[in-house]
Specification:
The protein is an alpha+beta fold. The chain has one domain. It contains two helices and nine strands; from the N terminus they run βββββββββαα.
């Protein structure tokens, strides 16, 4: 996955390679007993595919202060958030805890950003 951040939004470019599964991006909005997470799947804003449709890039746009999951063919799924103009990777456990909490997602993500900033300064 490649990305570029502009104006509190990130443009994600995910490899399109159907032989390895489907590429997709979804905002996670809660827990789900059957599928683990409730997902709002995003529509691509651009598809740069080969003529055959077997390779290329699919582009999505995400916003700050939300949790997302994406799937990239042959690489699998990752959890991310856009915080302070940076893409931050989250663990499944962190996502589960954030979605269960009564504290807003925005506040929890800001807390994570502060913690990561402090770790970088200490290193």
């Amino acid at each position: 996955m490649m990305y570029e951040v502009k104006n509190n939004k990130a443009i994600l470019k995910i490899r399109h390679q159907p032989s390895g599964g489907s590429e997709w991006v979804a905002e996670l909005v809660g827990a789900d007993p059957k599928f683990e997470f409730k997902r709002n799947f995003l529509k691509p804003i651009e598809k740069e595919w080969s003529r055959s449709g077997k390779t290329g890039l699919t582009t999505y746009e995400i916003s700050e202060d939300k949790i997302y999951e994406y799937n990239e063919p042959w690489r699998g799924r990752e959890f991310i958030a856009l915080i302070g103009g940076r893409i931050v990777y989250l663990t499944k456990k962190e996502v589960e805890e954030m979605l269960k909490s009564d504290v807003s997602i925005k506040i929890q993500l800001l807390k994570k950003e502060i913690e990561e900033t402090l770790k970088r300064k200490e290193a």
